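Customer escalation, tier 2.

The customer says the design service returned an amino acid string that "doesn't look like it belongs to this structure." They asked us to rerun it and document both sides in this ticket. The original structure tokens are below, unchanged.
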């Protein structure tokens, strides 16, 4: 079943009407006009309410009108009929125009109705939306983290949110309608607040509007605190409305201050380091730098580096002048690989264009998990490079010296091996960790073993120790390891190939680890067998010598007794003989014949010579047997004593005896006088034709006093220089120069007792100079002790040798 809506029904009806009119028009006379009725079809189409359909219908009817006239019967063409057709067409289009206008007006009316309804709906929706926005704004204001305060142009509070209550301590009910200045502005700023509002109302120029400000506010309890304030202004029918957004920045200020202090600490820390430090972002621009960085790079302040591309500024070229692309820069490897980089062989460029060698470290910096750049730390290694260069040069020189030294060591080792082999000294090297021992060929051959015999372990030495020496040798080794001494030394016997034992002196030096554990001991074996045997022989000889000394001691006692007898018993009869011979000569001289007088003269002279000889012998023996202890002795006084004893000889010969200033020494005072008396007396006695001239002087050295006795006498031939100090040794006859030949022997004995030496410088006929020395520190010289048999033995041995 086909269902038509109203629009379709109208079209069908209009089509049916038009068809009917067309059929009628085709069947009537041409002079009869039916086409005017097409306006009915057009009007029916108007019911579709579509202008396009009306126009189409009018066009169709316009076409049907001439067609109907064409098909109508009759041949005449009437003018009236033609005009009727034209009028029909006009009627059709006028009807179409009227219907179209009517449809347009209906459409406008319908559109107005729809628009009105739509506007009403929009108005209702906007009202609802405004209400929601207003509620949402209020909720937003109440939920805001900042205090939101609104005032009118009279500075009266019209809005006060929850945060304002918390911030200032006034409730909404208490704050609404109150003066803002009186409620929260410090008293010192209230006048400024009022003047600012008045100026804005007069000029309309906002001075502090629409910007963030920091100022002070006051709480309900009177506490003044810092706030951050932003004000916006709205002009409305009631006048100006102001909205203020207030934030308590007390904690913010405290945080900023803490951050400032921390930043200052970091800055101080960075500036106190000796290393240059700077940071770069991902594009290589400098974000910070310390003072050392600026100084090393030749800049006055770190701020000169901020924002600069550090690679282009300080790392643009290699040391040879070739470009250094940023893509190859190892500093930026921290960006590319997120790993730290350490480089010690590159150069940075200063502001003045010079370069210096650096060692740098580049480490990536992450900000909230994301790579933000890197921090570079560098040091100037110019001085270190110079030192390293010098060290390298010195090391090379040292290597050359070591190589040369190694060559010398090889040569020395060869010489040492030859020397050790020639000296029959064996070398050993014991590894205390592995217990292995190296023994040289000589260490084996000195005991009669084959040089190629395998001695490789400690037991090879241990098993050859003499049983009586084993315990002592092992204890000596153990003690050395415990004490860690400088030198290991031990004496023992080792078994030879033929089964005998030889004495060995072992010496060496050890190496220890940090804990004191022995690592190595190296040393030598010295064959001291003959030395030990010789020591045994020497020990026997020392025993024999001791027994001989005891015998000599007994003999010296006998000699002392002889000296006593000689000084008393021998001199008494000799003195009687001399006296009686002198009496005979005095009483009978000239009364007997010449022969008797000659015999008497010889008896008297012989007795006197014998007395003088005994006195001289006693004096010689008493040099040590009756010596006095050493004491400070003035040689000037000793010289004067000698002149007094020799005064008659000096006067008789007309001698001239002089001296320089002589020192004071540690000596036997009487023996010093006797020494000078003998030397000066000989100088006075052994003179030539000229009167004797004697001069005495001294020279003071670090260890010895040297004294000189010079004369102008007859001199001594060089071949007799040593003989003159022997006892009883005479160079002249009794007739020429009488004497016993003991005087100079006494001088040498005195000088020797004082630890010195005596000699003579002379040529025959040219005078003599006797030189003797006395130690400066004479307290160290061993003095004679009458009870010391060794000292007595010196007298005995010397006297025996001279005899």
């Amino acid at each position: 079943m086909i269902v038509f809506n109203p629009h379709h029904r109208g079209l069908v009806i209009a089509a049916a009407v038009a068809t009917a009119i067309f059929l009628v028009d085709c069947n009537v006379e041409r002079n009869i006009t039916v086409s005017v009725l097409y306006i009915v079809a057009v009007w029916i189409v108007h019911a579709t309410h579509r202008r396009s359909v009306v126009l189409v219908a009018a066009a169709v009817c316009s076409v049907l009108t001439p067609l109907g006239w064409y098909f109508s019967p009759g041949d005449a063409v009437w003018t009236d009929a033609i005009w009727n057709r034209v009028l029909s067409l006009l009627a059709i289009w006028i009807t179409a125009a009227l219907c179209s206008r009517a449809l347009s007006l209906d459409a406008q009316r319908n559109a107005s109705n729809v628009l009105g309804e739509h506007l009403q709906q929009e108005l209702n929706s906007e009202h609802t939306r405004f209400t929601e926005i207003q509620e949402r704004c209020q909720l937003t204001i109440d939920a805001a983290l900042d205090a939101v305060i609104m005032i009118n142009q009279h500075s009266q509070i019209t809005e006060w949110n929850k945060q304002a209550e918390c911030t200032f301590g006034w409730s909404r009910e208490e704050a609404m309608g109150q003066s803002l200045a009186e409620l929260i502005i410090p008293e010192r700023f209230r006048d400024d607040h009022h003047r600012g509002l008045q100026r804005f109302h007069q000029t309309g120029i906002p001075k502090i509007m629409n910007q963030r400000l920091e100022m002070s506010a006051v709480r309900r309890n009177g506490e003044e605190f810092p706030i951050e304030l932003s004000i916006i202004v709205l002009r409305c029918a009631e006048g100006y409305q102001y909205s203020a957004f207030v934030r308590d920045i007390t904690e913010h200020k405290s945080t900023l201050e803490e951050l400032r202090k921390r930043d200052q600490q970091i800055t101080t820390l960075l500036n106190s380091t000796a290393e240059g430090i700077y940071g770069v972002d991902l594009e290589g621009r400098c974000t910070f730098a310390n003072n050392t960085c600026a100084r090393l790079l030749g800049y006055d302040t770190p701020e000169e580096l901020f924002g600069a591309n550090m690679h282009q500024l300080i790392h643009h070229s290699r040391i040879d002048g070739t470009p250094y692309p940023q893509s190859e820069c190892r500093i930026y490897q921290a960006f590319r690989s997120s790993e730290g980089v350490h480089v010690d062989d590159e150069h940075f460029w200063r502001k003045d264009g010079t370069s210096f060698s650096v060692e740098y470290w580049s480490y990536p910096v992450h900000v909230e998990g994301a790579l933000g750049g890197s921090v570079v730390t560098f040091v100037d290694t110019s001085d270190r490079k110079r030192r390293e260069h010098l060290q390298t040069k010195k090391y090379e020189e040292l290597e050359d010296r070591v190589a040369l030294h190694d060559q010398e060591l090889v040569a020395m080792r060869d010489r040492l091996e030859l020397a050790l082999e020639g000296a029959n000294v064996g070398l050993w090297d014991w590894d205390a960790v592995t217990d292995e021992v190296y023994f040289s060929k000589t260490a084996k051959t000195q005991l009669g073993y084959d040089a190629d015999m395998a001695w490789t372990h400690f037991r090879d030495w241990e098993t050859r120790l003499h049983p009586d020496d084993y315990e002592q040798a092992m204890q000596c080794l153990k003690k050395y390891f415990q004490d860690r001494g400088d030198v290991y030394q031990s004496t023992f016997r080792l078994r030879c190939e033929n089964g005998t034992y030889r004495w060995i002196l072992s010496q060496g030096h050890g190496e220890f680890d940090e804990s004191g554990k022995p690592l190595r001991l190296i040393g030598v074996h010295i064959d001291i067998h003959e030395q030990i045997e010789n020591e045994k022989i020497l020990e026997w000889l020392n025993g024999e010598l001791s027994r001989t000394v005891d015998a000599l001691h007994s003999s010296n006692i006998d000699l002392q007794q002889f000296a006593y007898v000689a000084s008393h018993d021998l001199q008494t009869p000799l003195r009687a003989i001399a006296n009686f011979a002198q009496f005979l000569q005095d009483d009978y001289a000239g009364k007997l014949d010449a022969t008797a007088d000659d015999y008497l003269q010889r008896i008297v002279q012989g007795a006197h010579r014998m007395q003088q000889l005994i006195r001289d012998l006693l004096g010689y023996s008493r040099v040590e047997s009756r010596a006095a202890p050493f004491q400070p002795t003035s040689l000037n006084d000793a010289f004067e004593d000698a002149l007094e004893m020799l005064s008659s000889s000096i006067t008789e010969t007309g001698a001239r005896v002089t001296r320089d200033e002589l020192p004071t020494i540690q000596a036997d005072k009487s023996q010093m006088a006797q020494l000078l008396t003998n030397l000066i007396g000989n100088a006075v006695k052994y003179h030539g034709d000229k009167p004797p001239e004697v001069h005495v002087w001294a020279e003071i050295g670090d260890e010895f006093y040297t004294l000189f006795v010079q004369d102008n006498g007859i001199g001594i031939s060089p071949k007799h220089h040593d003989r003159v100090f022997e006892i009883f040794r005479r160079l002249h006859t009794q007739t020429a120069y009488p004497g016993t030949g003991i005087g100079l022997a006494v001088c040498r004995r005195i000088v020797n007792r004082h630890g010195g030496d005596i000699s003579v410088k002379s040529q025959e006929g040219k005078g003599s100079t006797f030189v003797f020395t006395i130690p400066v520190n004479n307290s160290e010289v061993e003095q004679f002790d009458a009870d010391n048999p060794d000292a007595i033995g010196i007298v005995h041995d010397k006297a025996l040798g001279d005899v």
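Tier 2 assessment: The sequence is consistent with the input. The longest strand covers residues 224-236. The chain has 23 helices and 22 strands. Sent an explanation to the customer and offered a walkthrough call.
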